[in-house]
Amino acid sequence: MDTLQLKAYAKINLGLDVVRKREDGYHEVRMIMQTVKLFDKLTFTLLPENTIRLKTNLGFLPVNENNLVYKAVKLLKDMYHVEQGLEIDLFKCIPVAAGMAGGSTDCAAALVGAARLFHLHLSKEKLMELGVTLGADVPYCVLRGTALSEGIGEILTPLPAIPDCHILIAKPPISVSTKFVYEHLDAKELAAHPDIDGMVEAIKAGSLQGIADRMENVLETVTIPEYPVIAKIKDVMKEQGAVNALMSGSGPTVFGIFEEKAVALAAEKAIREKQLSSQVYVVEPFK
Length: 287
Description:
Number of domains: 2
Radius of gyration: 19 Å
Helix content: 25-40%
CATH class of the largest domain: Alpha Beta
Largest sheet: 7 strands, mixed
Number of strands: 11
Strand content: 25-35%
Distance between the termini: 27 Å
């Protein structure tokens, strides 16, 4: 096998709490992560020469060691003394800098794809262990599905799949710096914390309403005052019939949970007509 194509799926945060800031500067979190069926495509081709070549459909993305895909392949080549080269063609569909782990999921797919083509026979657990050295969300992107994420994001507990639903995703035409959001968040000053334990129980009980009722993201306390369009998109989704809507990660992407596809599609149309976002998608949860 000389060529391989993989899908790298995006994630949303059904719940996101920041517990505290550690002395090393990292923030400890408790999050409910959910993979969704919005994906990038990566095509891997073995090369005879000892090199890494990365191509992408977005001209502004780096194609060198500043890209997590490149870093993932280099990590495996260096660690396992692989002399073969690899070309990776990355076709991006997940919005960039959107709070959906686009870079991390591409990195995870690169670890999986390169390990397979190099015949390294690495377990999922080993790939997750390597992934955390590249980024906090990478182990989850290797795992996928529904999971409780703790620590800095590397402590993962798989959960049952959430009930069938339709997820409307909308990224407004702004960029949000994750660094800015965390730097301006004071975990000790938070007035309330999401009921993450209650959401875990709702997921185990298969209650979509129970999940929706507990959707909360403490990072909104920083991001929404800076970017009010996030609140506008949430309001439109709820007005259009979402059982709830929330910002994903550090933003600016907003997602809404819908029980019926027709209602989600009508909400998608409303968001486009109001010109709140042109990157709008109706997807299903990945199970």
